[in-house]
Specification:
Blueprint lengths: L1 H16 L18 H16 L8 H16 L30 H16 L4 H21 L3 H22 L63 H14 L3 H9 L10 H16 L4 H29 L4 H7 L21 H17 L5 E3 L10 E3 L2 H14 L5 H21 L10
Antiparallel strand pairs: 1-2
Helix pairs in contact: 1-5, 2-5, 2-9, 3-4, 3-6, 3-10, 4-5, 4-6, 8-13, 9-10, 9-12, 10-12, 10-14, 12-13, 12-14, 13-14
Length: 441
């Protein structure tokens, strides 16, 4: 709330210093707006993710991706350097035209659009809706007190709602409701349910979900993993033996990394998608960037994670590789062995955390630079020490490597995931054309 009050003071100062030809008569008015609106909405979305239940982990990728599109489209007409995604997305999407006449106050449009998106995704719990309504009203009241002429505000709010409605309707056609297709374990040497829950394969049809951008997963399929073998000295056995040996001598630092990047969707953590949006939120808090650049970063991060998730699931259910706990118990004879963190219910290859984190790091580098150093405070509230990195890529690499320490992924799967994630990030960067002018990049 303190940030919102400060924002009100700043905007009021700006308004009183402007002439009659003020920012609301300037169609390119977003250069005057900071990113606190997006920071606050992201903070709320992370709370909603943590407090939600019954949503499969990978599905959170959609929530961030589609919300990012609605946010961006609700703002894009307010910055002449940017252009709409209208003709870049995968499938038919009839975005509404911005109202003609007086220029809109675009932050009010973004506020309404994001609120509509989050109500759609997190409406299962009434408390979630109350939180969304409350934050929307805080900003709506602030804008009403600062922008006296409702002609700048009401059409903006309605436009934001229309944008969200179109995006929501489009999201419903991506195939994500048809992902629980039948799956039967393929026998020895392939994935099978893992302890302690021995849960069924998680959404094996996620690979069939429509990507946001056509061609985003092209040329990202890796070479096959090592061939299954129970023979000592084989590539497969050696790969598992490395993980097993590491598990016997885990250092406190290795355990800390495994815990910090666990990100399980269990009400304690905020998922890998939420973790990277938490990093994004922290960057916004530390950097003085305008609202449109923040929307661009949100958009790039959301879409990249979404595409990487779809590509990862395709690889997983192509090779159906068994998890370490299965091999170590069944084929090495250590029947009481357990991974340090809980093994999730889907095939091992490729490592999802490594793939998703590498893609997320690449997406954020696109906006904030390759050598952006930061300290990640995502789990301060859980009593975990913050972790510092000299680059976003370094954070992505640690996130992947943490799964080796956690005992749930082999090193080759992690290394391959890093490569797949970067390739996906590069594809999205090449496919996503946001700037009207080269000089804006």
């Amino acid at each position: 709330m303190k940030k919102i009050i400060l924002a009100m003071v700043a905007l009021l100062t700006m308004l009183t210093s402007c002439s009659k030809s003020n920012i609301f008569e300037n169609q390119d008015n977003l250069k005057f707006e900071n990113s606190e609106l997006i920071e606050d909405w992201t903070a709320l979305q992370l709370q909603l993710v943590k407090n939600s239940s019954g949503i499969t982990h990978i599905a959170y990728s959609r929530h961030f991706a589609y919300t990012g599109i609605a946010l961006y489209e609700a703002l894009v007409n307010g910055d002449k350097q940017y252009k709409s995604l209208k003709y870049q997305l995968n499938g038919e999407l009839a975005l509404p035209a911005a109202p003609q006449g007086k220029p809109l106050y675009w932050p009010a449009s973004a506020n309404a659009a994001v609120a509509e998106m989050l109500r759609h995704f997190y409406a299962a719990k009434p408390a979630n809706v109350q939180r969304i309504d409350s934050l929307e009203q805080v900003y709506a009241s602030m804008y009403k007190s600062l922008v006296k002429d409702s002609a700048y505000l009401l059409p903006a709010v309605e436009f934001g709602k229309k944008i969200a409605t179109v995006i929501i309707d489009w999201s419903k056609t991506d195939g994500s409701t048809n992902v629980n297709i039948p799956y039967s374990p393929l026998g020895e040497g392939y994935w099978e349910p893992t302890p302690p829950a021995n849960a069924a394969a998680n959404v094996p049809g996620w690979a069939n979900v429509r990507t946001i951008l056509p061609g985003s997963t092209n040329n990202t399929s890796p070479a096959p993993p090592p061939a299954f073998s129970k023979v000592e000295g084989s590539s497969f056995y050696t790969m598992v033996k490395e993980l097993y040996d590491i598990s016997l001598t885990l250092s406190s630092e290795q355990k800390a990394a495994a815990d910090f990047w666990d990100d399980a969707p269990n009400g304690k953590y905020i998922t890998v998608f939420g973790h990277w949006f938490s990093i994004f939120k922290q960057i916004l808090h530390n950097e003085n960037i305008n609202l449109m650049k923040a929307a661009e970063a949100y958009l790039r991060l959301g879409i990249t994670l979404n595409e990487a998730g779809i590509g990862t699931w395709k690889i997983k259910y192509t090779y159906n590789m068994l998890r370490p706990v299965t091999y170590i118990r069944k084929h090495m004879g250590f029947t009481n062995w357990n991974s340090y963190i809980t093994t999730p219910p889907h095939p091992e290859y490729v490592a999802a955390h490594a793939t998703l984190s590498a893609s997320a790091a690449y997406a954020l580098e696109t906006v904030f630079g390759k050598n952006y150093s930061f300290t990640d405070h995502t789990y301060d509230a859980l009593g975990m020490a913050p972790r510092s990195f000299n680059s976003l890529e370094a954070a992505g690499r640690e996130a992947g490597l943490s799964r080796l320490f956690g005992g749930i992924h082999y090193r080759p799967s992690i290394d391959t995931g890093n490569s797949v994630g970067k390739k996906t990030g590069k594809n999205v960067r090449q496919l996503l054309s946001l700037h009207r002018y080269t000089s804006a990049k």
